[in-house]
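User: what does the whole thing look like in 3D?
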Amino acid sequence: MIFPLLRGLLWFHRAPVTWLMVALNVAIFSWTYPAYKIADQAMEEVLDDSEFMSTTGLLLSLEISGKSELRTPAANLGVGPTVEPKGLRELAERSLRGDEDSRVLLGHIALRRSGFIEETFAKFQEQPEFAAGVGDAVAVEKWQEGVERLFEVQGVHPSYRLGLSSGRSEPWRWLTYQIAHSGFLHLFWNMIFLLIFGTFVEHSRGSLASFLTVWLGGLGGALVFTLASGLSASPLVGASAAVSALIAVAASNMRRRLPFVYWLLPIQGYYGVAWLPAWVLIPAFVLPDLSGWLSSQPGFSGVAYTAHLGGAFIGFALSRVFKERPQAFTELAQSVTGTAASSTRLAA
Amino acid sequence: MVLRDPLEKPRERSARHSKASDGFALPFDRLASHVADFVLLLPIMALAMAPFRRSGIEARLLGDSYGADLALVKGLLAALAVGVLWETFFVALWGTSPGRAIFGLRVVDMWTGGKPRLIHAFARAVTWWASLFVLGAPFFGVYGNAKRRPIHDRVADTEVRSRSTRRQSAAPRLAELATGSLFATLALFFATMALSGQVFTFRENAKIADKKMEPDLCQDVSVAFARWENLVVKPTRISVALGLSAAGTVEPSCLELEADYALWNNQGRVLGYLGKALTYYGVDSGQAEKYFGKVCELEPDSDACRMVEWYREVAEYDSSRAQEEVGTDTLDKIARQMTTTRSSEVWPDWMRLLVLKEMFVHRGDPDLILQLTQDPAQDETIGAKLVEYRTRALWRLDQKREAKATFFSAADALPRRQRVVLASWLCSRELYEASCSQDADRACDMMERSAQVEQGDFGVPALLLASLRHAECRVDKGRSTTASFSQFADRVKKAADEEGRKLVETVHVLRFEDRRLGMEILRQMASEEDLSGSLYLTEANIRLIEEIAKEPSSNKEATKELLQLRERWFSSRDARRYADWGRALFEALSRRGEWQRAAEVGVMLGAEFEFDQRLQRRIAVAAWNAGKRKLAADLVDSLEKSRLPASVEGGAFLRRSSSGSLDSSAEATAEVSGESAKERDVIELIRRSGRRR
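Assistant: Here's the predicted 3D structure for the full assembly of 1041 residues, as structure tokens:
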């Protein structure tokens, strides 16, 4: 267990921008929380409606297996024919042969699939006679009612109102998605990391560096996420891409020693503070995102690993622009040990 | 404490290796050094596992738990390879690893005091990881060895030394040894439990991996569909499913599955909608109506839509809660169209069966039923259903010999299950209506030959009751002994439930031991408040009525009890369903000259489908005797209307066996049904009175 040290970085005057950003996040979250709670429950209800999910899954099965052109060709312009993964094709096959579990599973995938629900719904609305010929028309009619309910819920859900999704990708969302969080724990951990690394970056490279790293990191994260897997229909929210960018800035000067809290065994002498090179942050915080991305099925993971990696990339790039103030590290060492100890020796 | 800098140049350090002052490392230092190693190692291991985790997730999503297990094992092996590589690389190159370096630990060759050789480092790494695999039990060897060398050190001829003079350990004391052994034992125990559990699950998953469940459509439909494949006109799955479902051989859930398949795969949408509608029909009328609407929207002029019209009519009647039954005009029209306008080959079996089913439930024209069941079906289970309908329709028309002929000529070709069902139906009809006749013997013998105890057939109440009565018949006729009846009872009891067993025992007591006691038990069973459709309790009532009927008419007590039993029948929730119960009451009451009360029972019985014409004539006589002349005339009138249908007369394959009764004159019918001359006279009287009116 190893963790960069907070001590000495908590003073507001040393990192005002970071603290303001944390405050902004917390404020937005508290402000939207009542709406979030209600909307999230309504969303759960939609997701628990097995009939709706089953029909959604069946509709996606039709698209995957190429049995029906649910969306207008214009929707696919520029994307070109995509080959669906083998697993998805098998799921579609099963769901069409009556496997209820596969249907519901595909239903969940369909809700994340970029534009699927919106475009299918729009086509059904525009061409009712087409809708009547797709699968079980009675179920499809009911499905359209379900979609209307879904849209209603999305209209008031803070994650959808602020987040970045395939149906909602106006330019301002590329920034606002970072200040929306899905749940208290999501906010809590993001803010902890934002504080640790934001104050460090602000202290060592200046407020502008911290400010730009956060917002550009978030922007870059969303961009890489879009390029790697396409925007999902479920919204991208959270400050984690920005946090990744800050971590990357902190780790960019790899040989620089930073104070870490370590905790190896619950026995005295095996925990404390150690000065370790900054590159330790990379296996500890960046590598897991890479393996997370490699080990997740596209469209299934709840974590936007590619956004994290994109943020980290932006962070490394920005670290070339904003240079470190060497003086900052002397101060850091002082704050940790109380003396101006040499940062090349480990102390505990 | 002061920690060593892991990035201090390793080469300098290895040069200091052979310092004599180096002592054995502290066990906790060794543990902590590994934890520190894992901070760097775990992310790399996770990276190595990533592709396998990905395919594991995919397998899990597809419900392939064996594939998921396999991916997990592969992933663990990949992670293990990384771990072994890490250990081997650092120990062979530097004699230490990043984590160990922090605590100033070195792995040294026992003999040279220098870095271990590559092969030794590799062997040590493999053993170390293998030890971790059993929850690290072998690591407790540090407490059991004077030089603190667990198995991986022994394998590689190495020991772990500490550079720091203040962090060195002496040989372990006894207490340490004891604690170490205890923990090692515990670790091994839990490792065995956990690993064997894992291996077990893995093997179980591997077993079902071969027969990975196909998320498949309805099995019965697939089988029937495969049988049909040789035909010129291949039906769709949904039409097969509709047919089987109408024949009652598949569950409604099966029909729904097939209907969904047809709809979403474009394999017959009209029938798909009809199938969906039928699964909701009678359960959720709103939903059913939506689907019915789709059927007629797609093909307004189809057979399916015509059926829909009928279903809607019935639904409307049901919702209006009308007392009288729904008129069958629409249904009869469809049936008539089927029999006249087109040849039967054009009519799909599903349509025939749906129409027949409805005609049976709503008592459509029996003549049409006979015409519809004339041609064979394409599937044996559906064909069996046609035979059943035909047999029962003939029975209802009082053409019992034709009915039997139909059944027996087809019996051998019927699937076993259907043969048992129909034979047990015929056997019970014979036994209840004509008691121990020769024909009853024939049907019951066939039933018993086809039924299989091990298939649980005797667990079916109707079959058990029929074979019980039949066994009694055999004893009565001297074809069997009391002992063999007991044997039969013992055999049957195994398959029956508690009530069935009790009834069998009671009958045994009643017949062969103590009639009084038997009747007492019957009274007790018969007075059960909640019949809840139990045939055994109904049978107890019937038995009781039969026993009481044996008392002379002068026994007022017996008559009083009979009337009580009559009240019970009237008050049972759905008296019509228990027609044999009513019939027994009617017989008992009319034998005692209680005409008024018998006629009341008779009117109620008239609502039952299995009600035959002979009984109807007798009810008419009872009504006449009770002074209800109009009722009697109406009954005879309706009898006249449903005279023997033309189709039977024209039915060539029946002529052979039933030529005697094809004449529909009153005399012939009377002869067949064994009516008394007195009854015939009364009927004649009623007929005349009816004409006068």
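In plain terms: Chain B has 34 helices and four strands. Strands of chain B lie at 23-25, 105-109, 158-162, 168-169.
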